[in-house]
Write a structure and sequence with these properties.
Layout: E1 11-18, E2 22-23, E3 32-41, E4 49-59, E5 75-79, E6 86-91, E7 97-104, E8 111-113, E9 120-128, E10 134-145, E11 151-163
Parallel strand pairs: 2-11
Antiparallel strand pairs: 1-3, 3-9, 4-7, 4-8, 4-10, 5-9, 6-7, 10-11
Length: 164
């Protein structure tokens, strides 16, 4: 699934699941899943996008339409080109959602997204699929600067389906 950027959105997000069809765990059949959220500069944007951070909010715990009731078991990793490094943390402060915060690890605390190729992929791995079957909405927010240096905060919604 790929988001279509709205007018002025500098980034586009793609969601891939592994396996392609996620299935909710049963007492005698535990299932795990993987989400890959890829971030790239939107096709219509000219010039570099300077990204200062990305957050991904996942419904978990006792939330309606939660992905898992065991968010602390979600593994995190990332892929980024050119040896870029990112710091990833998870916040479990809200019992109904888990927020994954991704921040570039460099002196400027930002990364330049210069072309349409993927510039960052967040991997949420080994997710115990113990939540509610159906559609689960993820919220992605990015803090960036445009070519003029103005701060831009954009959000997008992605949906993942978990079968019964």
């Amino acid at each position: 699934m790929t988001t279509e950027p709205t007018s002025g959105d500098p980034l586009v997000y793609t969601l891939t699941t592994e396996p392609a069809r996620l299935t909710r765990s049963a007492p005698d059949a535990p299932h795990r899943g993987r989400l890959e959220i890829t971030v790239a500069r939107a096709a219509g944007v000219t010039g570099a996008v300077h990204c200062r951070g990305i957050t991904v909010e996942v419904p978990t715990g006792d939330a309606p339409r939660s992905l898992t009731t065991q968010p602390e078991r979600i593994g995190t990793a990332y892929r980024a080109p050119h040896g870029r490094t990112w710091w990833i943390s998870a916040s479990f402060a809200d019992p109904r959602s888990t927020v994954f915060t991704c921040v570039p690890r460099n002196p400027r605390r930002e990364v330049r997204f210069e072309g349409p190729e993927p510039a960052f992929t967040l991997l949420l791995d080994s997710i115990p699929l113990t939540g509610t079957p159906g559609e689960v909405g993820l919220r992605i927010t990015a803090d960036s600067r445009d070519a003029t240096g103005a701060a831009v905060r954009t959000s997008a919604d992605l949906t993942v389906t978990v079968g019964a």
